[in-house]
């Protein structure tokens, strides 16, 4: 059975503007509440009453506020029968909220686990799977959209996993070596210098990575097909953040030795140069050991525990290099790519502290 409009139940069949008869002072108060309200729907309901009290028709309000005429009628009837309380969100009386602090805390703990830890076959979480596991743990069933809102409240993000290799050393040995290196850096003499040293590969074939695109579109990245490689060796100053780097077409011991010569030229007055680096084979080959002996012990090598890239600060610079230059690049020749790499490294010094991501093109 079709429901009759509420104003037919009102005595004398008054129009909506006649029903909502309020003083000018009340209209101003409702207007102020609408301006201060953070609830968009509540703000619209306040404005509907104000406009009706000013004599506007439901058709005019529909066009002005982009709402249905039935919504105007319902709002007017609720205000006519219940007053200000009728304009509030009626869902407040629906009962206790399903999502509370306990639910959010349980979800936060669950995100620290993998689905396989909870007995599921899937290797990564989906909203549907999270909702099912939360229902099993808490007894509270929520929809996927509600679960998505919970993830937004927790500021959870949909991100890529990061590959990691466990250090083969015992934990005590690894921590002892890291403490030794940190102690060295904290007690470094004023006339000595310390550097984070590492190499990075540069490929003509671009690294494919995420980028902002319009809905339904995917960015295409042309590849040359035949790959070419170049290598950089860099030394990042612990004290100043300045970078010394050299280029090469092979990752051999001579590339590392060229870097050491460049550091010597740059820091002639430093009696001792400390190098913090990984245990890659070119760092302790016979050729390197012979050269270090000829330099009279000016270089002192401090090897990090195996598979500890987070402890080498220059690794963060290489990540920025890939994010700004090599990822999704459009260079057709390796020389063009190297030009962009050099421009980036010049703008990245000192690191951290500079903003190379905001640099403009300054090369032909």
Features:
364 residues; alpha/beta; disordered N terminus; single chain; 5-stranded mixed beta sheet
Question: Could you describe the 3D structure shown?
Answer:
The protein has 364 residues and is of the alpha/beta class. The chain has 3 domains: 6-90, no CATH class; 101-153; 174-210 and 222-358, Nucleotidyltransferase, domain 5 (2-Layer Sandwich), CATH 3.30.420.10. It has 13 helices and 5 strands. It has helices at residues 16-19, 24-36, 40-53, 58-65, 69-82, 101-110, 127-138, 144-153, 171-186, 253-266, 286-294, 314-326, 334-347, and strands at 193-203, 229-237, 243-248, 273-277, 299-303. A 5-stranded mixed β-sheet has the order 3-2-1-4-5, with helices on both faces. The N and C termini lie far apart (76 Å).
Number of domains: 3
Total number of beta strands: 5
Q: What amount of the residues lies in strands?
A: 5-15%
Task: Please name the CATH architecture of the largest domain.
Answer: 2-Layer Sandwich
Distance between the termini: 76 Å
For the record, the CATH class of the largest domain is Alpha Beta
The CATH H-level homologous superfamily of the largest domain: Ribonuclease H-like superfamily/Ribonuclease H
Oligomer: single chain
